[in-house]
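Problem statement: downstream parser choked on a complex file, so we are re-checking the raw output for the 2'-deoxycytidine-5'-monophosphate run. The parser issue turned out to be on our end (a line-ending mismatch), but while we're here, posting the original submission so the record is complete.
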Amino acid sequence: MEAKSIAIDGPSGAGKSTLAKTAARELGLLHVDTGALYRAIGLYASRRGVASKDETRVTELLADINITLRFDGAGAQRVLLNGEDVSDAIRTPEVSIYAADAAAMPAVRAFLLETQRSLARDNDVVMDGRDIGTVVLPNAGLKIFLTVLPEVRADRRLLELQEKGVATTYDDVRRDMEYRDMKDSNRELAPLRAAADAVHIDTSELNVEQAFDVLKSLVRERFHGDRP
Ligand code: DC
């Protein structure tokens, strides 16, 4: 039987990873946060002193990069970059910029595609990112596209970073998000876009439980044949 997969796409701060984490825990799926893969490449490029937009050099570096994902007992994802656990080191604003620039490079996207697809072949997954429903898992059993009002997004992202102990300000967060949205939505390859068959959910006025309730009823309908 084919593995079950749920794709969650949307801009940063729309609540993708929170919703995906809850879904993974409650439904017994593996949560794959694909942004972490782009971040690991960004981190490597920044450590090597390569300019974030230097496509030739970043592409060359891919030959030296081995990224693997590990999942702890609770299903939480850890990212290993050449064997080193970089799960925390990839969460800085500088790495965010590097990741957004790297994500616009065709060689980087091609490099990460098979890693993502093989995880979904071997496991029941809820995978979040920007192009999961459109490119990575076009046959996902359920595709969700999250949207949210800009001011709510920036507030959420700030809180998320503060909880992780990252020192930053509202203005920095907003600037960083706007830069990445612009890059993510306007790049030629796999831009941030909803799949034609994605269900759109605006999370501006939903808390995690409410968003999960919506997802749960979609899962029942898609995977268990319940009527909406
Ligand atoms: O979700 P995030 O902020 O951790 O993502 C980091 C960057 O990677 C962001 O600029 C978008 C990009 N990304 C992407 O292009 N495709 C994905 N499937 C996931 C992330």
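For whoever reads this later: The longest helix spans residues 106-122.
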